[in-house]
Design goal:
Elements (H helix, E strand, L loop, with lengths): L1 E5 L3 H12 L4 E6 L7 E3 L2 E4 L4 H4 L4 E5 L4 H11 L9 E2 L4 E2 L4 E2 L4 E2 L4 E2 L4 E2 L4 E2 L4 E2 L4 E2 L4 E2 L4 E2 L4 E2 L4 E2 L4 E2 L4 E2 L4 E2 L4 E2 L7 E4 L4 E5 L1
Length: 207
């Protein structure tokens, strides 16, 4: 499988290593607008985003390796690729239930756990050591930070960001584009476009 990686920051470096560790996967290009012109190194093309259409082929997949939820969404809308052209990347140490559903373009980092009947949307990030328990429902462009825990039957709207080591108790709903601060404990529903922090988490900002 030939792979084009979009973005070349810190988050991308982790994803590049994940792809390189998979058998029969080969990174052929890394695209980022910090490159003003095309160059090649060790058989990999480095070029601006505009080179994507020149490199796409029927046997090539794309992964957007950018940590920002809003930027990932904007790029998906700009690139206008088919859903099946995006690659989901799952690290070999991640534990993923056979009944879980993972959308295209989503990445699951080392030692993450995704349990029974969990549903994860497209272009999301389940970061290192994160736990997504049974029957969670995560929309597109979500980011679950390292060591965060979503207990059973949690529902997250589009673009939600759960901070590192935060915990969300069972049955909680968090509205789209809300942010939960690192180390927080969420015991009440959170509306859309809010920022909540603390233990228990309290809303400190609402758009």
């Amino acid at each position: 499988m030939k792979v084009i990686v979009i973005g070349n920051g810190g988050h991308s470096k982790v994803i590049q290593e994940m792809i390189s560790s998979l058998r029969n996967y080969e990174i052929i290009a890394i695209l980022d607008d910090k490159y003003k012109e095309k160059k090649e190194r060790n058989g990999i093309t480095y070029a601006p985003f505009s080179f994507l259409n020149k490199l796409l082929d029927t046997d090539v997949k794309v992964v957007i390796a950018i940590g920002s939820n809003t930027v990932r969404k904007r790029l998906v809308e700009t690139l206008n690729l088919r859903t099946d052209q995006y690659l989901s990347v799952i690290h070999s140490t991640a534990v993923v239930s056979s009944t879980a559903m993972i959308g295209n373009g989503t990445v699951v980092m080392p030692n993450a756990v995704i349990n029974a009947d969990a549903e994860i949307g497209e272009h999301s990030i389940i970061n290192t050591g994160a736990i997504v328990e049974h029957e969670n429902k995560l929309a597109n462009y979500v980011h679950i930070s390292p060591n965060a825990t979503l207990t059973g039957n949690v529902s997250l709207g589009e673009g939600v960001h759960i901070g590192a080591s935060a915990t969300v108790i069972p049955g909680i709903e968090i509205g789209q584009w809300s942010v939960i601060g690192a180390g927080s404990t969420v015991i009440h529903h959170i509306s859309s476009s809010c920022k909540a922090v603390g233990s228990p988490a309290r809303v400190i900002y609402s758009d």
